[in-house]
Design a protein that fits this description.
- By secondary structure, this protein is an alpha+beta fold.
- It has two domains: 1-108; 116-275, Thrombin, subunit H.
- 39% of the residues lie in helices and 30% in strands.
- It has one helix spanning 2-108, and strands at residues 114-125, 130-133, 146-148, 154-161, 166-170, 177-183, 192-198, 204-210, 220-223, 235-243, 250-257, 266-273.
- The strands form two sheets. The protein has a six-stranded antiparallel β-barrel.
- Strand 7 and strand 8 form a beta hairpin.
- It starts with a helix and ends with a strand.
């Protein structure tokens, strides 16, 4: 009986101690979880803020890229439209210049019945001494038609015709031969006849002139019309130097041509004339 009484307090103490230990453990676990949560939040917050900032910056960057792309496309469209308008203006100016030049030539040739076709120079071949013009067979252009500028200076003759373009052989080509006459200061003297030949390098010279003829620097050369390709009295050039040898039957002369192929924009094809 006494043994039973002594055991009961011991059991209660053990039970109380066990409950106390469990309480301490539960409190410690709760406190530890709160500490861990607070520590993790403290550590992770800067990273979270950084990611948020990066996200905002990325979105802003993408938005800016989209805006720049839109502005860039608008600028490209405006540039293309501006180039198109400039091209149209240039074409109109070219047409106006051709019309003005054509009127000048018609006035200069009003005493000579000729028909002209104004056209633009679209290509230069210095190796073969050719130019390409922007009219062809569809415009009534044909082989051997003469080509001049607004001052009636001879450029050459047509040697190849296509539907919308034409090749013109310059009088400076080595194959070019033009019958010419030399005007002198004394108009009472009969004109001197000769042949103009090309040197293949935008230059021309006078050949087959009688050694008895008197040539002077500055004498003007005109087409004689004898070969039947060029109308008479078209401008050729001026004598720049006379080459005479008493032993030879003929004399030659260097000639400065009146045509300027490098600065030519508009030329005229003589489509018909009275021979």
């Amino acid at each position: 009986m006494n043994l039973s009484v002594r055991k009961q307090p011991l059991v209660w103490r053990k039970a109380f101690l066990t409950i106390a230990i469990l309480g301490v453990l539960i409190f410690a676990l709760n406190a530890g979880q709160l500490f861990i949560r607070n520590s993790f939040y403290a550590i992770s917050r800067p990273l979270s803020d950084s990611f948020s900032n990066v996200g905002r910056l990325s979105f802003a960057s993408v938005s800016s890229s989209v805006n720049f792309a839109s502005v860039g496309q608008e600028n490209s469209n405006l540039k293309q439209e501006n180039e198109r308008l400039l091209s149209q203006v240039a074409a109109l100016q070219s047409q106006i210049q051709q019309n003005q030049a054509e009127r000048l030539v018609l006035q200069a040739t009003q005493n000579d019945p000729v028909t002209l076709a104004a056209t633009g120079v679209i290509g230069i071949d210095l190796v073969n001494q050719l130019i390409t013009i922007s009219k062809g067979s569809s415009d009534g252009i044909a082989v051997n038609m003469p080509v001049i500028n607004s001052q009636k200076a001879v450029f050459g003759k047509i040697i190849a015709v296509y539907a919308h373009t034409t090749k013109v052989q310059l009088i400076s080509a080595k194959k070019s031969v033009v019958d010419v006459k030399i005007l002198q200061d004394n108009l009472e003297n009969a004109p001197i006849n000769g042949v103009l030949k090309g040197d293949g390098n935008l230059g021309v010279y006078l050949d087959l002139v009688s050694s008895d003829a008197v040539l002077t620097e500055g004498d003007v050369l005109l087409t004689s019309g004898l070969e039947g390709t060029f109308p008479k009295d078209l401008l050729i050039g001026k004598i720049s130097a006379v080459n005479k040898n008493d032993v030879k039957a003929f004399q030659t002369a260097s000639v400065k041509p009146f045509f300027d192929v490098k600065n030519a924009d508009t030329v005229f094809v003589i489509t018909s004339y009275k021979k």
